[in-house]
């Protein structure tokens, strides 16, 4: 059976202070906070989601904010090394000035014919803005960011693998990615989707990663629905990789497996989406709890540090 991934559904990372997280991704980058909820496995920790106005797959980055005193991780093999966002052509000059305005150091880069700005968030997560024609312009225009400059969603990601050769093989033979280039020690793949669809794999090891603040926990790929997700589960298991049972994540269903290079992959369904428990116009405004934690709302509200989306000067 031939299967082809449509690209990234979401990326999940570990960060520190939750208000610093909101200030950067909503205040500086201009993403929409589309969901406040809690970690299913640790309800005393937020799970925050940022994306475009409609909270569409391929735009969503999610965070577990472990707090100010949490230990730092180390970016390395077995992790997403860089998360890349797409911005409209001609918008990079605006973002250079915006990063300078907020005293965020950046470097300019070019790979596979694409110009980009590389920088880190306040907790050390590596990010990149890449100018790209593909993808729908964002209609979320916070502050002085217009749709001519706003982040569209993911362009892709760079993977650091403990076994790059096997990861490359998996992306091609199991996930159905198409190899489209090789340059400066990176192999580029394109998925079957038209957004969030470019994946670079760094050839050669960079040293073992360690999960903690400033690192990506996992990358999730799209499944159109539950039926396709089960087909992916069967397909992946045929290659000798262990896949978890389906996990209900409220806004999507998930399966997980660790690929040959130690990266944690998830396959997440597009539905039901983020409007199942609050209307689109109010996304991210209130703390939404899974049903099993609703009875603990009062105590959780006391435990979680309050957060707010605010305009930064």
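^ structure tokens above, recovered residues below v
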């Amino acid at each position: 059976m031939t299967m082809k991934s449509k690209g990234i559904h979401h990326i999940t990372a570990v960060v520190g202070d939750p208000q610093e997280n909101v200030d950067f991704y909503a205040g500086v980058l201009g993403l929409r906070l589309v969901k406040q909820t809690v970690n299913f496995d640790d309800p005393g920790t937020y799970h925050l989601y940022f994306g475009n106005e409609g909270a569409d797959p391929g735009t969503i980055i999610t965070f577990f904010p472990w707090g100010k005193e949490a230990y730092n991780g180390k970016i390395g093999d077995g992790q997403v090394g860089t998360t890349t966002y797409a911005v409209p052509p001609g918008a990079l000059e605006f973002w250079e000035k915006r990063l300078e305005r907020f005293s965020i150091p950046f470097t300019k880069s070019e790979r596979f014919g694409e110009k980009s700005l590389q920088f880190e968030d306040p907790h050390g997560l590596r990010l990149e803005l890449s100018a790209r024609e593909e993808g729908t312009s964002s209609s979320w225009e916070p502050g002085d960011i217009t749709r001519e400059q706003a982040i569209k969603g993911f362009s892709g990601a760079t993977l650091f693998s403990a076994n790059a050769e096997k990861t490359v093989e998996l992306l091609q033979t199991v996930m159905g990615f198409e190899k489209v280039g090789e340059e400066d020690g990176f192999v580029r793949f394109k998925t079957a989707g038209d957004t969030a669809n470019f994946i670079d794999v760094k050839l050669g090891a960079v040293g073992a990663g360690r999960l903690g603040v400033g690192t990506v926990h996992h990358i999730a790929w799209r499944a159109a629905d539950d039926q396709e997700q089960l087909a992916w589960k069967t397909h992946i298991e045929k290659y000798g990789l262990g896949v978890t049972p389906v996990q209900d994540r409220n806004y999507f269903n998930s399966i997980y497996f660790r690929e040959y290079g130690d990266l944690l992959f998830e396959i997440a369904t597009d539905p039901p989406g983020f409007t199942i428990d609050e209307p689109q116009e109010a996304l991210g405004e209130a703390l939404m709890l899974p049903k099993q934690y609703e009875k603990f709302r009062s105590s959780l509200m006391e435990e979680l540090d309050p957060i707010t989306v605010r305009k930064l000067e």
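The domain at 8-303 is CATH 3.10.180.10 (2,3-Dihydroxybiphenyl 1,2-Dioxygenase; domain 1).
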